[in-house]
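Consider the following assembly input.
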Amino acid sequence: MNSYKGVLKENLWDNNPVFVQILGICSTLAVTNNLTNTFIMTLSVVFVAGLTNFTVASIKHLIPGKVRMIIQTLIISFFVIIVDLLLRAFLPAVSKSLGPYVGLIITNCIIMGRAEAFAQSNKPLISLWDGITTGIGYMWILMAIAFIRELLGFGSLFGIQVMPEGFQTWTIMIMAPSAFFILGGAIWIINNIKLSKESSK
Amino acid sequence: MEKNSMTYTAIFSFVITFILVFLLTLTHVGTKNRVSEYNKNYEISSILKAIGVEPKDQEVQEQFRSIFNLELPTNETMIAKIDGEDILVSKFSGKALWGTVNGIIAIEKNLKTIKGIDIISHNETPGLGGRIEEAWFLNQFKDETINKNMIRVVQGSGEGNYNSKDGIIDGIAGATRTSHSMEVMINKKIKSLKKEVGNE
């Protein structure tokens, strides 16, 4: 019933976690003022979402229904702490600038949502795929927001100066509220595209 | 065993927690040395930058040893020998807008001139108060004269104040509180160093 291609399309566009389900907004506002951080952060989400889904789907028959949610949280926390430890050891500079946000992946509703909605009722491999594609669905929209914010807020992309000397940077782009405006604009545009597609059918 | 029974739930919860925590411990132990090594080197690089020495990636510990005649940084005031001159190097910290700022300050022994400062850690807003760690801000402190036992961080022209005679630092636009906190914590440090040196 769930084909790999269907899951991919669903998570990247039709049912995108950020602009359709409006999940994970807190991190969308917090980490998107710089492309490098956003990339590492969303990559961590891909990793955590994929492996959490895989683990939950693998042991779902063993999990008692009563403590299902708390076990999911436990598994999510486990993978998040692993990511945090690895970042600290191997990418200390990135870990420093992400600060507490890596730890906050635990509370990212997207991951919990996929574990409960998908992994609990599907086989391990397709659940892994679902987690990964959900993560990528989250990644691409955050990267798009970060692209705009870093370009206008710092005049750079991935930390490399691209705007000409003397470019007046937009302070608002560095602050969290700008992500609200950009995300709002993105949802508006995407909904318009979807509507016009439907009406032309 | 009945899957929803109390006993099964308890045993299952215990076992899965045990396995996951065990794996975490392994990862932590495996990366511990790397992390503490990095933190140590980061602090040493900060100290070197404060006294105006460019840290070289793999050799910061040797650089530190040869300048300070110490194995590792201590929490007390350290003395660096540069060109035969004694420089006092000390950690400073203080509250800023969001949290504590930790840094290193290097001052000439007569407490008349700041050699330089560097920031080890802070929690200020990226792009605003967070700019205290950027070179343009820190470089303003290089060889800055201390006027009447203090420096001032003020609203300037926006270009940075690199006049080292006036004891004035250009603050950060949009980060007034952070800029002011920097002034307060550095002046406090100058005062306490004065006490320390005076008692010798």
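The first strand of chain B starts at residue 78 and ends at 82. Ask yourself how this observation constrains the way the partners meet.
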